[in-house]
Amino acid sequence: MSISDSLWQANQDLAIACLRNPFVQGIADGSLAKPKFAYYVGQDAFFLTAFARAYSIAAAKTSDLNGFEVFHQLATGVLEELKLHHQYALAWGVNLTQVEPGMATQRYTDFLLTTAWSQEIGMTAVAMAPCMRLYQFLGQALATNGIPEHPYSDWIRTYSSPAFAQLTTQLETLIEQYATPMPTAYSNYRYAMLCERDFFQAAWAGTEVQE
């Protein structure tokens, strides 16, 4: 089993918890209240900006051209994803320039950027992989019986697409190239998955996870 698959399999409980979260289920059937999605759009745009920066930091730390190119390609993919969020923001009346990160968002972005600056690039890839693999899993799960037409169809369409799956594969290839299956890799991956769970719960609450 690859390192990426081993890390993912070790966190199936959190993947299922995210899938069953009422926020994700509200996206699935289109019943999610618009203010909750609007809050999510702003928070996720803030998160994705940090995500792109973490990719760029990792790219700057690579010593080989292939790794440098792949990290930059992944950063470009995030910037494309941000364009979708800008479209959402216009449609949902969210001013992305005035978004303040919630506690769950700040905790997650601080973790990613601290990892990118302080650890080897393999650990950066490990810390970033849960977001990609989880969203691919959620998108494909919600699209299993086809994509219904409702306000959140584009969300499902984006994350169930072959293009997004390709980005996930690219990132996981970097894990295989640069990371080793040490305890730190498992703890970093687990922490990122916990951040994902809390991020969805904060979006469902519309503000914050209750500590």
Please, could you describe this protein's structure?
Helix 5 packs antiparallel against helix 9 and helix 6 packs across helix 7. It is globular and about 45 Å long. The chain is mainly α and 211 residues long. It contains ten helices and no strands. It has helices spanning 3-9, 12-20, 22-29, 34-61, 65-92, 103-118, 121-142, 153-159, 162-178, 183-205. Helix content is 78%, strand content 0%. It has one domain (3-205): Heme Oxygenase, Chain A.
Can you give me a brief rundown of this structure?
The chain has 211 residues and is mainly alpha-helical.
List the helices and strands and how they pair.
Elements: H1 3-9, H2 12-20, H3 22-29, H4 34-61, H5 65-92, H6 103-118, H7 121-142, H8 153-159, H9 162-178, H10 183-205
Helix pairs in contact: 2-10, 4-5, 4-6, 4-7, 4-10, 5-9, 6-7, 6-10, 7-8, 7-9, 7-10
